[in-house]
Amino acid sequence: MFLEVKMNKLVVAVYVLSLLLVGTLGFVGYSYYSSVQFDKQVTAYQEGGQAGYEEALAQVFQQAQSCQQVPLTIENNTINMIAVECLQQQAPEAVVE
Fold it and tell me: Which value, to the nearest 10 degrees, does the dihedral of the CA atoms of residues 86, 89, 91, 92 take?
């Protein structure tokens, strides 16, 4: 009888420890999976932002190269940008010898 009680306690202890191990492995696996998914989302967000900046800059260059004024606004400040080459094309008439 003493051996049976000791054996039952051992079985219960092994069972409880097994459950704790499975729970811990599940938690660690879920944490790792969540971390990987978050990293993917951050990377996608950063790449999208970079692509947006590149596209906006390409549009500004295209518009400036066609000798059009390009209004650039940041908060309450606005400037009109134009390519220097466009100004140099108009300048020879104003040159004084």
Answer: 170
